[in-house]
Design brief:
single chain; guanine phosphoribosyltransferase activity; three-stranded antiparallel β-sheet; metal-binding; Rossmann fold; EC 2.4.2.8; PRTase_dom; glycosyltransferase; alpha/beta; six-stranded mixed β-sheet
């Protein structure tokens, strides 16, 4: 598995340090607001688990499963909600947790959905932000790391459901997915 990694972008220690900082920023902003923290499955799970443990506020957890990739390496552009929230977001402060914001299409759909459901506020926390690939006009309010336009894996992010458990974030060797490129 590690042999498929071209380069490690962020070590487990880099990630932990940045998550601690993000947790402090979110604690300051959401003190006494009792936010709903919404993890976008599956990629955000590791990041979300570590992040909420760094937040010293009352909060509620919920999850959505939204797909725009399938088994490829490029976003399909079509966003499909597979699992919706259990909680009602009306008049609540919502924090969307994403592993990576790439084209922004998925995030734009989720953001609009929460606005339509009358959330008091909606903010986005992304472990990774890839602005070079942005197509949709979305704002990432809190960013762990800004990354180049490379295919990354590890710390929750996958290629065809593999590599999520890697403790670091790395660039996947193009030879691993070359057969999928046109």
């Amino acid at each position: 598995m590690h042999n498929d990694v071209e380069e490690i972008l962020y070590s487990a220690e880099d990630i932990a340090a940045r998550i601690k900082e993000l947790g402090q920023e979110l604690t300051a902003e959401y003190q006494d607001k009792n936010p709903i923290v919404v993890g976008i499955l599956k990629g955000s799970v590791l990041f979300m688990s570590d992040l909420v443990r760094e937040m010293d506020v009352k909060l509620q957890l919920d999850f959505m499963d939204v797909s725009s990739y399938g088994s490829g390496v490029e976003s399909s552009g079509h966003v499909k909600i597979i699992k919706d929230l259990d909680a009602d977001v009306a008049d609540r402060h919502v924090i969307i947790i994403e592993d990576i914001v790439d084209t922004g299409n998925t995030l734009a759909k989720i953001y609009d959905l929460f606005q339509h459901r009358n959330a008091a506020s909606v903010k986005v926390v992304a472990l990774l932000n890839k602005p070079e690939r942005r197509v949709a006009n979305v704002q990432v309010d809190y960013t762990g790391f800004e990354i180049p336009d490379k295919f990354v894996i590890g710390y929750g992010m996958d290629f065809d459901e593999d590599y999520r458990q890697l403790p670091y974030i790395g660039i996947l060797k193009p030879s691993v997915y070359a057969h999928l490129l046109h």
